[in-house]
Structures are given as structure tokens and as C-alpha cells.
Amino acid sequence: MVFRRSIYKTPAQLRAMVEPGLITAAALDAVRPAVRAGATTAELDAIAERTILARGAESNFQLVRGYHHTTCISVNQEVVHGIPGDRVLEPGDIVSIDCGAQFEGWNGDSAITIVVPDPDRPELVERRQRLSDVTEGSLWAGIAALASASRVGEIGDAVQTYVEASGEGYGILRDYVGHGIGRKMHEGPTVFNYRVADLGPEVRPGLCVAIEPMIVAGDEATLVEDDDWTVSTVDGQDGSHWEHSVAVHDGGIWVLTAPDGGAAGLAAFGVTPTPIS
Question: Beta strands of 164-251 (E only): which ranges?
Fold first, then answer.
């Protein structure tokens, strides 16, 4: 007989996931002001690592076989899984930073996108900021849908609907999706960022998922670079990645990787998060 671990957490387990979420949020908050022209991606990675270690946690990215960094940092046509190194950020770059922390055996996972200011190319900055804004908005649309969803697949429908409503003709990556999160950074269920026929498992208290739309300015086709990690668009168009870890509990939903539980982001959708008790 095969026993499968439930995708639903107990109330005590949900409470244990709050701190790794907050630590992940703190790491990204520490990196934000350092994303500027002249900074290297390795410098940004070091800031995230110091923040996580200072809180008594560890990088869960470094627990992935073959990966040795605290973050993934993807620039311009790179969408996800970019490796931090000696790359120097330039004015106008669009930079996605993905980060996670493990604390007392529980995990957090989150990502943000920032556009480096460039006063000489305002149109470029505006175009890239629009991509980031739509991606972030689609993330919050997916989280808001989770608050009233019956099945996990309704998240992807909400994300795709939001992206399509932007009128920008953006693509949604199909080969890379969100996931459950808990004792491991990547657990079931799969969380699609687009509509699927099979709506998947039931949404009920105890569900914890990392919702992470990966949106591109052009065609959704991607390739993996020679480093065997970095995922870039085939057509060279820009990408953006936003992510939050979210818990469903008896009182509603709570965004684990947002210090306010997602209150600010969800306000536009008429959803109020409830703290985990």
C-alpha cells in the first residue's frame, strides 16, 4: 500500500509557516534598495543571504541539488532561474528576484520584479514597468481568486483573465508553474498560471500554495541557457516574475510572504486577508 502525504496542513503547521514567509519577505525587502545601476547580481544575492542567516534561517534554494545561491536573479529576456554572479546591472534593466527561506523545517518562497531607473530612456522604463505591473496584478488576481475558489485551477483562470484584460498581448509561460509549499519548497499541487480543463484539488483550510505568474512581453517560447539553469525567451523579449506563498485557513486566506498578509495587494479585489490564529 502506498501512502501519500496530504497537501493540506494542520492549523499548527500553518502557524509554523508564518515565520519562514516573513523571513523570505524580509530578504526581498533588503534587496530592493540595492537594485540599481552598477550593482552586481552577486551583491544582491549576498544581501538576501545575510538577511536570511541573521534571522536564524537558511536558504532553501541552496538545498536544491546543484544550486549554490540564495536567490535566482533574472535580467531582461531572462524570465526565471538566472544565476547570480558578476553581471552588472545597467540603467533600464528589468530584474526579477526569486528567493526562499527555510526555518525550523518549513518554507517560504516569493519573487519580485524591479525596473532599474534610466532617465535617458523613459519609454523603455515605462514599457518594462508596465510588464512588471501587469504580472504583479495577475498575481494578486490569482490570490484573490483563491479566497473564494472551490478548486485550485481557478487561480490560473484568474491570472490569465487579468493578463488578457491588460490588452498588451503578453505571453504566459506554460512550462513553468506554481506549486504547493510546506516541509519542502516544492510540493503538490501544481498551480497553473493559465486555464486548464482539470481544475485539480479542492481548495479548503490547510492548503498552502506558491502562486507565481511568469509573464513575457512577446511569445511564451523559452529556452534554457548553457548554464543549465537560466530560462530565457526565444524571441529575446522581456520577462517578469512575481510570486507569493499563500495559506488557506479556517478564517480565510493569508499571504505568508507579505508582512501585511496581502492586505494592500488584495484591497483592489475587495478581499481582506485574515491572520492565522
Answer: 171-172, 178-180, 187-191, 208-211, 214-216, 222-224, 231-233, 239-241, 244-249
CA angle 185, 62, 79 (to 5 degrees): 75
3: Cβ contacts below 8 Å, ≥ 6 apart: none
Tens of pLDDT along 60-95?
Answer: 999 999 999 999 999 999 999 999 999 999 999 999
Cα 108 to Cα 60: distance, rounded to the nearest angstrom: 8
Q: Are 54 and 22 in contact (CB under 8 A)?
A: no
Assign a CATH topology to domain 11-269.
Creatine Amidinohydrolase (3.90.230)
Name every residue whose Cβ is closer than 8 Å to that of residue 54 and which is 6 or more positions away in sequence. none
Q: What is the pTM of this model?
A: 0.96
* Spatial contact of 40 and 86, defined as CB atoms under 8 Å apart: yes
- What is the C-alpha separation between 270 and 31, in angstroms, rounded? 30
User: In angstroms, how far is the first alpha carbon of the chain from the final one?
Assistant: 36
Q: Which three cell numbers stand for residue 187?
A: 510540493
Give the whole-angstrom CA distance, residue 25 versus residue 228. Answer: 27
**Which residue ranges make up each domain of the chain?**
11-269
**122 touches 53 (CB < 8 A):** no
